[in-house]
Structure formats: structure tokens, C-alpha cells
Design brief:
This protein is α/β, with parallel strands linked by helices. About 25% of the residues lie in helices and about 30% in strands. The chain has a single domain, classed as 3-Layer(aba) Sandwich (Rossmann fold), CATH 3.40.50.2020. It binds 1-O-pyrophosphono-5-O-phosphono-alpha-D-ribofuranose (PRP), manganese (II) ion and magnesium ion. Keywords: Cytoplasm, Glycosyltransferase, Magnesium, Metal-binding, Nucleotide-binding, Purine salvage, Transferase.
């Protein structure tokens, strides 16, 4: 069984670039939410690494919660349907929420979640997305805190998966084509 690094074709965003960008956004968020007792909501599973790094780079006290949503199924194409695999554990009524997400692709996951959190009574809902694929956007979402635009290639790492694997890669990368063709090696 090969190491994850052996399956990578090329790196798109290095760990150092990720950490630098997260640090810049965390500084803005710390000022924007000072005194507002924000609730950070990570969209699992993809946002796990982004939430871990980002929350530690923020300098004000925050509350964290987690919602597990799925739109992709097991392939590389978004299905457009959103499934709640695991819901939040807290009441969002009156809260200032910052959604923490790894990537905006079609925008359907975030469009659904913003609407759902407002329906539940959140006082405000903003988005931090580490990555965006502008070429694939289908629905409009307002991403206030934006990390990197990336090309329309299937990427993995730093939380992003291919068929539930490669979330543990420590940078954002494109897999070798053979990975999509063969079984898990
Ligand atoms: C991926 C990604 C985003 C979403 C983006 O999650 O982590 O949450 O798809 O796609 P969209 O903009 O087209 O909705 P996925 O559904 O694969 O679940 P995961 O986070 O558990 O991998
Ligand atoms: Mn996701
Ligand atoms: Mg996924």
C-alpha cells in the first residue's frame, strides 16, 4: 500500500500557503467578531482541517459546532442534493455564525446551509471558504472570507477527499489519473 504522497500528480496549494492565508483571514475575523461571541460552524467532513487551523489562529474566544453534510456521493461530481449526516448540537437562535468550509464548488451546500441557519433564527450568517472553484459555480453564495481560487481540477488534501481517502494529505493537490481508474491501492 502506497503512501499518499506517491499518489499525487502535483501540488496546488502548499501547507505554508494555507497557513499564511488562514492567519490573514483569522486576523480579520478576530477584529470583525470582537465582542460578538461568534459561533463557528464547520461543515464536516471536509472542513475538519480548516476548522482546526483557523480556530487556533483566531485570537478571540469562539464557540464551535459541527454539521456533517454530503453533496457528492462517492464520485467526483456533485449530486446537487444535500444530506444531513449529523446535525448541530446547539441552538443557533440569535447567534452570529461564521460557517467554516473547505471548498465552494457548485455552491449548493453553502446556499442550502445559509438558508437553513437563517431559518433556524441565526442573527447573522457569514462564510469562510478556504477554496473556491469559480468555473463550477451554479448558485450564488456570498463568501465574505475567501482563501484561494483554484482551477476546475479534482483536488484532495487538507480535509478534501476522493472517495473518502486523502483527507489526511497536509496540502491541496491533484491526484494522478491512475487513482481514479484503479481500485484502492
Ligand atoms: C464537498 C466539500 C463541500 C461541498 C462543495 O463536501 O467539502 O462541502 O462538497 O460542493 P458544492 O459547492 O457543489 O455543494 P462533500 O459533499 O464531498 O462531503 P465531505 O465534506 O464529507 O467530503
Ligand atoms: Mn464538505
Ligand atoms: Mg467529499
Amino acid at each position: 500500500i502506497a503512501d499518499v504522497q506517491d499518489k499525487i500528480d502535483h501540488e496546488l496549494v502548499s501547507r505554508a500557503q494555507i497557513e499564511e492565508k488562514i492567519g490573514q483571514i483569522a486576523a480579520r475575523v478576530s477584529e470583525d467578531y470582537r465582542g460578538r461571541d461568534p459561533l463557528f460552524v464547520a461543515v464536516l467532513k471536509g472542513a475538519v482541517n480548516t476548522m482546526a487551523s483557523f480556530s487556533q489562529a483566531v485570537s478571540i474566544p469562539v464557540q464551535m459546532d459541527f454539521m456533517s453534510l454530503s453533496s457528492y456521493g462517492s464520485g467526483t461530481e456533485s449530486s446537487g442534493r444535500i444530506i444531513i449526516r449529523q446535525d448541530l448540537s446547539c441552538d443557533v437562535r440569535g447567534r452570529h455564525i461564521l460557517i467554516v468550509e473547505d471548498i465552494v464548488d457548485s455552491g449548493r451546500t453553502l446556499a442550502w446551509l445559509v438558508n437553513e441557519l437563517k431559518r433556524r433564527g441565526a442573527a447573522s450568517v457569514e462564510i469562510f471558504a478556504l477554496l473556491e472553484k469559480p468555473a463550477r459555480r451554479e448558485v450564488d453564495v456570498d463568501v465574505k472570507y475567501h482563501g484561494f481560487d483554484i482551477p476546475d481540477e479534482f483536488v484532495v488534501g487538507f480535509g478534501l477527499d476522493y472517495d473518502e481517502r486523502f483527507r489526511n494529505l497536509d496540502s491541496i493537490a491533484v491526484l494522478k489519473p491512475e487513482v481514479y481508474q484503479g481500485a484502492h491501492a
